[in-house]
Design a protein that fits this description.
This protein is of the alpha+beta class. The protein has 34 helices and 25 strands. It has four domains: 27-48 and 469-488 and 727-916, 2-Layer Sandwich (Cytochrome Bc1 Complex, Chain A, domain 1); 64-266, Metalloenzyme, LuxS/M16 peptidase-like (Cytochrome Bc1 Complex, Chain A, domain 1); 296-465, 2-Layer Sandwich (Cytochrome Bc1 Complex, Chain A, domain 1); 514-711, Cytochrome Bc1 Complex, Chain A, domain 1, CATH 3.30.830. 42% of the residues lie in helices and 18% in strands. The two termini are 28 Å apart.
């Protein structure tokens, strides 16, 4: 769910990430979908939400372990990064053990774990989760189902009590399943609307035919239609036992006391006799070719094989092989700078007992993919015959080992790493993976390549773009039908939760970082945090292509950005990438630039980053290729349902001729020159519009010195500073647009309008509190009315967006075509109700507790420190805005919330934009 405020952003895994991305191959599905986008569009779609700042800390302590008499295994890792704790309970069962004919049973039970248990009903569970102020969710894979909470460390006892009650006795009523069935079937419909999901599901059924992996963890509508509460109860009784679970706790807590709390909560739950597990023994694979229509802007050609799984002795070698095949110095990626592919690489999706490897390349819409497929097969054939380059094996090993250090840079990430190692991979600790990686030899990788890359066992696929038609505009819906809902009622918490969560307090002030400004105008923000021997650097050049691209040169910003990957004036593309590989660093340059590097190599990494950002090569041959690729990509992109959907949203909330409605013309792109690129770079890349954030194992003085020596000589251009902010816009009006998408089986809907306030207006604090009540989280009104009570949707959220001169409001959801109207009316009903009368004291207290208690949690992630700092700089807000927010939340009244929603939100002006298979209704 979207937080709805400038600063109220949780360090959480989103519902889409958890309920979808980790359902077996769907993470790879997302990757393939992103690969189908032009690079600049990719960056826009995966931008992370802004987190908050951590303070200086010590590294995580060694793990403390215990096994209870009932068989529950417990691991506690103390990490003093922030006053936060994550619990992750891993049940060692997943989709592989679903009853025959009922794929998705484990996934359905995962949903029902949030529907209440003996001693804790679903409303109490949602209220506690909101009051904790953190994140809670779950995911299902083939072999493991995981449930995780992140909350203030003082609330560990509450979190443990919740999990113990769910392990002890789940409610599992037929009435609750009937409601949840509608929501989970909406989830199925959403994923079936993804061509890449359809492809990956088919691929999985071929590679793992006749095994428990034949179906992924999602499930199917027919299986859910015949599932009942009794079936789910049987699955729960067989597998949800303490001796079939591993509990991982990470955070700033005392390990011995934590284990005592675990014993008190779980100790009297009896162990159970566990059923035998179904083995996964895939048979031989016969080569074949698959074909799928897509709504992507470009085509994809893929070649896939079965690979070792996470528990295999060959897993480490398989990961190294995948890294070599996906290396930007490798032969597959070389298809891109050669102009033979729009994208090329290798994706590895391992499951516990087996995995999938996919070589993928993108081609322009309308082009014959046969030559590109022949190139892929020739490259992979040569690797199978001749082996892999030894230097790429060493580079891959260094980078994998470095990533083990980076992965410890958040409390929730630490819990997830340990859960992955223990529950999924069967290791004793994450470090064992490092030991395995160090032992991999070039001969091991060559042997695996010969075994895996066998054309007789390859599954080839073509994902070909098809047009769905142009958007159709209609009149606004003109108000909503009546939507009767049961009256709101305060939720009485159990005594143990009420005692722990009853008090509202201001969180401690967030310590401000060190801030420096150099003579050329560049600003540096330093956030020391010693959680690992790593340093993360993020930079932002404030620019806006809609405002800065010369007329007729739309697309020049994207081309300029893409050219940064072609090296510097002193190091060509391959030499530059090798220099990064030599220090196991990850780097990107452009308007948003970054560096992830081990502490000893910080200065060398910064020299490379500065060389790339300040002295890009912009070689003519690369320009010719990138310009052609951009024209080809945009030619497909401009006709895709996703693009048309986004453009329809912009048109609905913006006046005609608004800068955001500019779009590239593929024919004009081909008329751009390299001198146009150089001119745009000179005007748009400026130190006085640049902010750099350095976070991690660093002191402010050291960061200031190194950044000064690498970026301090960047000259400030003469002349006035360019205008990069969009101008204010008038209030939008109701309208309706439908975007056809023939590949989808579910509608995606947005209700949207422009707002006349910005992030600097104090009313946005009240709107954030109201949004917490209306549409942020499992206890929100929208979630309650559109999912829990009706099953109209799988997910729903509302969101306020801000910029320096603009604001916006939107409600988004996905639903079957016949449920969109009812879901829309229910959503508008909830907005009107929020304006019509003050929210209840219980709702207000819950929202304030959630936001106030959530603020300290934002210090629990190191990797995303810079995103919030850069976000606040971009909005022109001070870096202590979270403290201002805390004071505003603490004193907020129901009248404040009602007044803000009455003043700024206009339900009758909400435009409706729908993408999906249905026609205008």
């Amino acid at each position: 769910m979207t937080a709805g405020g400038v600063y109220a952003v949780r360090a959480t895994r989103s519902i889409q990430q958890i309920m979808t991305a980790r359902l077996a191959t769907t993470a790879l599905s997302l990757s393939l979908a992103l690969l189908a986008m032009p690079p600049s569009a990719m960056a826009a779609r995966v931008e992370a939400p802004p987190p908050a700042r951590p303070a200086a800390t010590e590294q995580a302590d060694a793990a403390v372990r215990a096994t209870l008499p009932n068989g529950l295994r417990v691991v506690v890792i103390r990490d003093r990064l922030a006053p936060v704790v994550t619990t992750e309970i891993n049940y060692l069962v997943g989709a592989s053990e679903a009853p025959k004919g009922f794929p998705g049973t484990a996934h359905a039970l995962e949903h029902m774990m949030f529907r209440g248990s003996a001693g804790l009903d679903k409303d109490q569970l949602a209220a506690i989760g909101a009051r904790l102020g953190g994140s809670y969710n779950a995911d299902t894979t083939e072999n493991v189902t995981q449930y995780f909470y992140t909350a203030p460390a003082e609330d560990l006892g509450v979190m443990l009590r919740i999990e113990a009650l769910r392990m002890r006795g789940l409610a599992l009523s037929e009435a609750d399943w009937e409601k949840e069935r509608g929501a989970i079937e909406q989830e199925v419909a959403r994923d079936l609307s993804s061509p890449s999901y359809q492809y990956l599901s088919r691929l999985q059924s071929i590679l793992f035919a006749g095994t428990p992996y034949e179906h992924d963890a999602l499930g199917t509508r027919p299986s859910f239609d015949k599932t009942d509460a009794a079936l789910l109860r049987g699955f729960y009784d067989r597998w949800y036992a303490p001796n079939n679970a591993i509990l991982v706790i990470a955070g700033n807590i005392d390990p011995d006391r934590a284990i005592d709390q675990v014993r008190a909560a779980f100790g009297d739950i009896p162990r159970r006799d566990l059923p035998a597990r179904t083995p996964v023994t895939p048979g031989p694979v016969k080569a074949q070719t698959l074909r799928f229509p897509t709504d992507y802007p470009v085509g994809l050609t893929t070649v896939a094989w079965r690979m070792p799984g996470l528990t295999s002795k060959d897993y480490a070698a398989a990961q190294i092989l995948a890294d070599v095949l996906s290396s930007q110095r490798g032969a597959l990626y070389a298809l891109v700078p050669a102009g033979k592919a729009l994208f090329a690489g290798f994706e590895f999706a391992p499951k516990p007992d087996a995995g999938i490897g996919i070589a993928v390349a993108a081609f322009p819409k309308g082009q014959d993919p046969a030559p590109l497929l022949a190139e892929i097969n020739a490259i992979l054939g040569a690797i199978r015959r001749n082996g892999v380059p030894a230097d790429l094996v060493e580079a891959a090993r260094r980078k994998e080992l470095a990533q083990l250090g980076f992965s410890a840079n958040s409390i929730s990430g630490l819990a997830e790493n340990w859960s992955q190692a223990l529950a999924v991979m069967g290791l004793n600790a994450p470090d064992e993976l490092g030991t395995a990686l160090k032992s991999v030899t070039v001969a091991d990788v060559d042997r695996l390549a010969r075994q895996i890359l066998d054309p007789a066992q390859a599954i080839t696929a073509q994902l070909t773009p098809e047009d769905s038609g142009k958007p159709v505009a209609g009149k606004g819906f003109g108000g909503s039908e009546s939507f009767a809902t049961p009256p709101d009622h305060p939720v009485a918490l159990p005594d143990w939760a009420r005692t722990a969560l009853s008090t509202l307090t201001l969180p401690p002030p967030v310590g401000l970082p060190s801030v420096f400004t150099y003579p050329n105008g560049l600003q540096l923000i330093v956030q020391p945090a010693r959680v690992s021997h790593t340093i993360s650097v993020y930079g932002q050049v404030r620019q806006n292509a809609d405002m800065q691209e010369p007329k007729g040169q739309e697309g020049i910003a994207s081309i300029t950005e893409d050219l940064f990957s072609y090296g510097t004036r002193s190091l060509d593309r391959l030499a530059f990438q090798k220099a990064l590989d030599d220090i196991a660093a990850t780097e990107s340059a452009g308007p948003g630039f970054s560096l992830s590097v081990l502490t000893p190599d910080f200065e060398q990494g910064m020299r490379l980053l500065a060389d790339n950002e300040l002295h890009p090569a912009f070689p003519d041959q690369a320009f010719q290729v990138v310009r052609m690729q951009a024209a080809q990509s945009y030619a497909g992109l401009l006709q895709t349902p996703d693009y048309l959907f986004g453009r329809a949203i912009k048109a609905a909330v913006s006046p005609p001729g608004d800068p955001t409605l500019r779009q590239p013309d593929p024919r004009r792109i081909m008329g751009l020159s390299l001198s146009d690129v150089r001119a745009f770079y000179a005007s748009a890349y400026r130190p006085d519009l640049t902010t750099i954030v350095v976070a991690g194992d660093i002191t402010p003085d050291r960061a200031r010195d190194v950044v000064g020596r690498t970026f301090g000589a960047w000259p400030r251009p003469a002349g006035p500073t360019p205008t990069v902010d969009l101008p204010p816009r008038p209030d939008s009006r109701a309208a309706r647009t439908e975007v056809p998408d023939h590949t989808s089986v579910q509608d995606s809907a947005i209700l949207a309008e422009s707002l006349g306030l910005t992030a600097s207006h104090p009313d946005h604090f009240a709107l954030s509190v109201g949004n917490e009540i209306l549409g942020d989280g499992f206890s929100s009104r929208l979630y309650r009315d559109l999912r829990v009570r009706t099953g109209y949707v799988y997910s729903v959220s509302s969101n306020f967006s801000w910029s320096r001169h603009r604001g916006g409001y939107s409600i988004s959801f996905g639903a079957d075509p016949d449920k969109v109207g009812r879901a829309r009316d229910a959503a508008i009903h909830d907005v009107v109700a929020l304006q019509a009368q003050p929210v209840s004291d219980d709702e207000l207290t819950l929202a304030k507790a959630s936001l106030l208690r959530g603020l300290p949690l934002q210090r629990a992630s190191l990797d995303s420190i810079a995103a919030e700092d850069l976000h606040l700089v971009n909005l022109g807000l001070p870096l202590d805005t979270p403290d201002t927010a805390a004071r505003a939340y603490y004193t907020m009244t129901a009248a404040d919330v009602q007044k803000a929603f009455r003043t700024w939100v206009r339900p009758t002006d909400l435009a409706e934009i729908v993408k999906g298979p249905a026609s205008i209704r």
